[in-house]
């Protein structure tokens, strides 16, 4: 489906309706808003996981080119297993992603002493390729982009608005053009215009934290800092934290996460996401931390700023009968627990599974009812899972910072917090396919129950309808 600026939405729908009447075997036109990790993975999943042949997928991306942008991104076992299912095998090896020599997914160190206070452990990840790996976001993005035909991706297409009715969907762009299709998938990130079109009152809230991130050649720090951990390390202070890790392809990352202190309004006015930051500020902020961290900031050549926002869980991810959301557009958890990349991949897989279940496996037509059934199965698989994460995120954001009588008391409280972190295995090792099968089983059980109830409570109507259909049969 190409962009069409000349056809108004209503007329376009009439054309679509006529085509639908004429050809029940028509291709299903899917518009994907945004070609980030979620958008690309969704395009791949809808072709490979769903196994539906006649899909016409078009992605609309605001950027002028798909290039290596961003800093570090972690993928946990759930995301890596999904990458494998999507067929992105080149991302599973040790070239693109970094796994530490200890085999421990995350190590938490004390800000001042560098002492290891706590560690995460894997639950059940026997295959090393599925163990948590750290990437430059651009490398994962590029690996996905290689699996999406270039002609499907329309660049320089900044979405201003989306709309939908019973017959179709439309995306409208800032350049005045529009695109029309049968299904719309909003994959346009945390500030999604698709979400805003259907939830105009939805608000994001500043978490109070700003992430200052940098990615650079590992040779700038490795071999130059005594005691630099070979594994990824997460140092916790009372309010702020610092993260460092090698990444794949010889890259290295540092991330300072600090309480900004400014009000949400002030921050909104003065800091934009991905803005170039002042690395001198990073050095100043962490100058009293352990010498390893101090040295890392001194050797960090540049940095960018990422103010962290989060929003509430949506009531539905199917805000209109032909529209859904994936990735950060659907679950606005911000940078919490480095879960965004893996969640986006699992969203895409769940949507592919839902399409396969309704259209490919069942051989059903692309009717409005079937479209809605597929989108609802997807929603029921993913929304409760991410709602659980969002409730943790908001709990942390609402937490009042305690006050302490002495530095020793404060330090003890920090160590205790580090040791009693929430267990997040349900998130990092989530089995999205199992969750999907469970939703399908529950939905089938509900249908059986409803049929049973109908039979039990409405025997008369049931008998009538049997009579009606047999009367019709005798006329044929
Ligand atoms: C440029 C960039 C850099 C990032 N860097 C990091 C990082 O270093 N570390 C990290 O952990 N996470 C980073 N993220 C976020 C991370 O990629 C996501 O949390 C996660 O991968 C889920 O991806 P997503 O596709 O849902 O959202 P995103 O990755 O945000 O992708 C959304 C896509 O939609 C496009 N888009 C947005 N609005 C519009 C519009 N109006 N019209 C058309 N297209 C639109 C964006 O350009 C982007 O390509 C970055 C995101 C972006 C966009």
Quick description:
This protein has helices at 9-22, 37-48, 77-86, 137-145, 193-198, 264-270, 279-285, 291-299, 340-361, 368-398, 407-419, 425-428, 432-457, 459-475, and strands at 28-33, 55-60, 72-75, 107-110, 116-119, 133-136, 153-154, 159-164, 169-173, 178-181, 183-186, 204-217, 233-236, 241-246, 251-259, 275-277, 303-311, 323-325.
- As residue ranges, the low-confidence spans are 1-8, 14-24, 457-476
| CATH class division of one domain | Alpha Beta
Helical stretch tally: 14
What would you say the CATH architecture of one domain is?
Answer: 3-Layer(bba) Sandwich
Organism: Trichoderma gamsii
Pfam families: FAD_binding_3 (PF01494)
Cofactor: FAD
GO molecular function, one term: monooxygenase activity
Structural description of this entry:
- The chain is an alpha/beta fold and 476 residues long.
- It has a domain at 9-67 and 142-204 and 311-439: FAD/NAD(P)-binding domain.
- It is 39% helix and 20% strand.
- An 8-stranded mixed β-sheet has the order 5-4-13-14-15-12-17-16, with helices on both faces. A 5-stranded parallel β-sheet has the order 7-2-1-11-18.
- A hairpin with a 5-residue loop joins strand 4 and strand 5 (116-119).
- Helix 2 packs parallel to helix 9 (340-361).
What are the main properties of this structure?
eight-stranded mixed beta sheet; about 475 residues; disordered N terminus; binds flavin-adenine dinucleotide; about 40% helix; FAD/NAD(P)-binding domain; alpha/beta; disordered C terminus; five-stranded parallel beta sheet; 14 helices
């Amino acid at each position: 489906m190409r962009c069409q600026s000349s056809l108004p939405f209503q007329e376009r729908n009439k054309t679509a309706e006529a085509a639908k009447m004429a050809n029940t075997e028509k291709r299903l036109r899917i518009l994907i808003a945004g070609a980030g990790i979620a958008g690309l993975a969704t395009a791949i999943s809808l072709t490979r996981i769903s196994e539906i042949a006649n899909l016409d997928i078009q992605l609309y991306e605001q950027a002028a080119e798909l290039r290596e942008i961003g800093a570090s991104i972690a993928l946990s076992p759930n995301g890596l297993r999904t990458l494998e299912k999507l067929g992105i095998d080149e991302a599973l090896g040790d070239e693109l992603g970094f796994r530490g020599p200890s085999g421990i997914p995350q190590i938490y160190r004390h800000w001042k002493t560098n002492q290891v206070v706590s560690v995460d452990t894997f639950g059940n990840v026997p295959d090393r390729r599925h163990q948590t790996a750290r990437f430059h976001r651009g490398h994962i993005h590029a690996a996905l982009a290689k699996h999406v035909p270039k002609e499907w991706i329309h660049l320089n297409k900044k979405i201003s608005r989306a709309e939908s009715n019973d017959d179709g969907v439309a995306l409208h762009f800032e350049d005045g053009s529009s695109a029309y299709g049968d299904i719309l998938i909003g994959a346009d990130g945390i500030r999604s215009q698709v979400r805003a079109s259907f939830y105009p009152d939805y608000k994001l809230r500043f978490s109070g934290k700003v992430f200052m991130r940098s990615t650079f050649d590992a040779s700038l720090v490795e071999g130059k800092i005594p005691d630099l951990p070979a594994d990824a390390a997460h140092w916790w202070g009372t309010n702020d934290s610092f993260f460092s890790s090698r990444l794949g392809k010889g890259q290295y990352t540092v991330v300072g996460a600090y309480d900004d202190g400014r009000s949400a309004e002030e921050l909104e006015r003065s800091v934009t996401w991905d803005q170039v930051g002042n690395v001198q500020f990073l050095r100043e902020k962490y100058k009293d931390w352990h010498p390893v961290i101090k040295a890392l900031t001194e050797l960090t050549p540049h940095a960018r700023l990422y103010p962290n926002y989060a929003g509430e869980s949506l009531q539905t991810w199917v805000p209109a009968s032909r529209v859904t959301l994936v990735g950060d557009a659907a679950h606005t958890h911000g940078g919490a627990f480095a879960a965004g990349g893996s969640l986006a991949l699992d969203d895409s897989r769940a949507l592919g599974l839902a399409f396969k279940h309704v259209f490919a496996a069942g051989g059903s037509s692309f009717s409005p009812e079937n479209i809605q059934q597929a989108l609802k199965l997807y929603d029921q698989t993913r929304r409760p899972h991410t709602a659980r994460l969002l409730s943790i995120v908001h709990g942390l954001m609402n937490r009042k910072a305690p006050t302490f009588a002495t530095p020793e008391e404060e330090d003890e409280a920090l160590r205790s917090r580090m040791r009693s972190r929430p267990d997040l295995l349900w998130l990092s090792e989530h089995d999205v396919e199992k969750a999907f099968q469970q939703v399908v089983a529950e939905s089938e059980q509900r249908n059986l129950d409803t049929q049973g109830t109908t039979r039990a409570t409405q025997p008369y109507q049931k008998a009538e309808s049997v009579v009606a259909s047999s009367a019709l049969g005798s006329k044929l």
